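It is time I had a proper look at our fold encoding. Can you supply me with one protein entry, sequence and fold together? It will help me judge whether the discrete encoding reads sensibly. Leave the record below and I will have a look:
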Amino acid sequence: MSKIFLTGAMGFVGSVLSRYLSSQGNEVIALEHDLQLGRPLPDQAAILAQGDIRDFPRLREILSHYRPDAIIHLAAKAIVAEAQRDPYPTFDVNVNGTIALLEAWHEASPDAYFLYFSTDKVYGNGLEKTETDPVKASGIYESSKAAADLITQAYGSLHPVAITRTCNIYGPGDRNSRIIPNTIRQCLRGETPVIYQKAGKREYIFIDDVCRIITSLVEKRQHGIWNIASGLVLSNEQVVKEICKHFPTIQPRYAKSPPWLELDDQCLNTEKLCSSLDCLSFETFPSGIARTVEWWRTQ
């Protein structure tokens, strides 16, 4: 058993990861910002530690008290459109929150394994991006994550760190405003989903695969930068049509892409990952979508 301090444990990825870590016999200490009376925890086995990711003294206090074996930092403002509308809280949480946690780790628990959950968006547009490619972000969300990514690398000169850059994650539990949950919600309401004609291709990975990989990196205490992706690169049309297979009476419509969607294709090179971990057992897209649609039908 390992004792793991997890930030962002109430979000989509964090809540699923927390349950997965607990199922593997780990003790999870989950940072919770807005504690609400009667609100169920995504992971009932987790220990709840109330605090703000930007509150350095509180983070130092938590780490000093629990002395975790590992720290996994997921807490972030993660919705691209929201970041564009409201940049300040995005930079405040994503950058200042990361600095506060890194410094608390440095002072209170430097022997703990540290993993920062970054994103493929830090590379900008392009195919087969490798871990040695430069960080080249432009939008608000992308730049905030790139800044935190580079700051984490800087702390890596003091203590070893791991940074994961993950492609688009989907699966049960994602209620955010993204193409897959948005399309499923539209279909459940009997509405016509939209296929944008010039949207670039994106790479997708199922949430369970992400949890398996993150857990393996922590268990093996792997350091450095790691691309996490499945090799599944799909167009907007392919994603929407796969979802519509579960709603036979609904036909999507085509529309001109809005300016913010006219991007180049994006995907990651996972040679480093696959040389260290099992990359042959990823969830297929039809199966992953089927599981996601079924989850939504129960909500």
Summary: Residues 87-108 form the longest helix (22 residues). Residues 159 and 281 are 32 Å apart (CA to CA).
